[in-house]
Amino acid sequence: MTRKEQLQAQLAAEAETTRKFIEVFPFNKKDFQVHEKSMKIGDIFLHVLDLASWTEMAVKTDGLDFATAPYNPKELNSVEEAMSYFNESVEKGMNTLENTTDSILDETWILRTGDNIHYESTKEDMIRVAHNQTVHHRAQLGVNYRLLGIPVPPSYGPTADFTDF
């Protein structure tokens, strides 16, 4: 399996799991916070969905500068809107990977705010970091779902709500 095929497989697997979390998202509870220092569930949800677009961004750009590219969150109000937005990002990522090369994956990618560099790595590593961030923030959604009484979908094994996998 080539490197890009490995990345495609990982993106596909994480997308399948993320879709389960999209299907049960409580759009009427977007402002819920587990703690005053925690992100609102709606912001976590949007971040998880946005991370699917980072594959394309990592391959096609040399980095992201928060100073010149402020975050403008998408307004999503239904499972259908969220699923469509997410699936489009995943498809773009898969197509981008299909058309990339190892030499492009080896190029440097930098996450920064102006002169302050937050992260510097290869484009391949940045894609993997985005996948890991998806897992991390999806777990945060799971905690929020549990506290809201929403059955928590399985990720890598059963949950208290879904015992078979």
Secondary-structure map:
Blueprint: H1 3-23, H2 41-51, H3 54-60, E1 63-65, H4 79-98, H5 102-105, E2 108-113, E3 116-122, H6 123-147
Parallel strand pairs: 1-2
Antiparallel strand pairs: 2-3
Helix pairs in contact: 1-4, 1-6, 2-6, 3-4, 3-6
Characteristic terms for this protein:
Four Helix Bundle (Hemerythrin (Met), subunit A); mainly alpha; DinB family protein; metal ion binding; three-stranded mixed sheet; 6 helices; 165 residues; DinB/YfiT-like
Please summarize what this structure is.
Belongs to the DinB family. This is DinB family protein. With 165 residues, the chain is mainly α.
As for the number of domains, it is 1
The percent range for helix content is 40-55%
- Report how far the terminal alpha carbons are from each other: 26 Å
Which structural class matches the secondary elements?
mainly alpha
What does the main sheet amount to?
3 strands, mixed
The helix tally amounts to 6
Rg, alpha carbons: 16 Å
* CATH architecture label name: Up-down Bundle
Organism: Fluviicola taffensis (strain DSM 16823 / NCIMB 13979 / RW262)
Family: Belongs to the DinB family.
Keywords: Metal-binding
InterPro entries: DinB, DinB/YfiT-like
